[in-house]
Amino acid sequence: MGHEIGRGHETCPGPNQPAPAMMQQIRGLRGCHPNAWPYDERGDYLHGPPVP
Questions:
Q1: What is the phi/psi pair of residue 33, to 5°?
Q2: Where are the domains of the chain?
Q3: Contact predicate 24/10, CB 8 Å
Q4: pLDDT at res. 49
Q5: How confident is the model at residue 24, as a pLDDT?
Q6: Looking at residue 49, what DSSP letter applies?
Q7: On the chain, which terminus has fewer CB atoms closer than 10 Å, C or N?
Q8: Residue range 1-52, pLDDT digits in tens
């Protein structure tokens, strides 16, 4: 669904952070925590750096 709304793949934003929903988590978490929800408790979109 993320690709359909214009989102690209992202990577871990930093150690112990929730993994972005657009991170290919099956390939490893790179220090992030598993996460399937795209927003935090305040409703902010969880994102990380784009994958080149």
A1: -90, 145
A2: 8-52
A3: no
A4: 96
A5: 92
A6: P
A7: C
A8: 788 888 899 999 999 999 998 999 988 999 999 998 989 999 999 999 999 8
* Cβ-defined contacts of 43-49 (< 8 Å, 24+): 46/13, 46/18, 46/20, 46/21, 47/10, 47/13, 47/20, 47/22, 48/10, 48/11, 48/12, 48/13, 48/17, 48/19, 48/20, 48/23, 49/10, 49/11, 49/13
Whose CA is closest to 34, among 20, 46, 14, 48? 20
| C-beta of residue 23 within 8 angstroms of C-beta of residue 16 | no
Whole-angstrom Cα distance, residue 2 to residue 20? 11
Tokens describing residue 40: 């935090």
> What DSSP assignment string belongs to 3-40?
TTTT---B---STTSBPPTTS-GGG--TTPBP---SB-
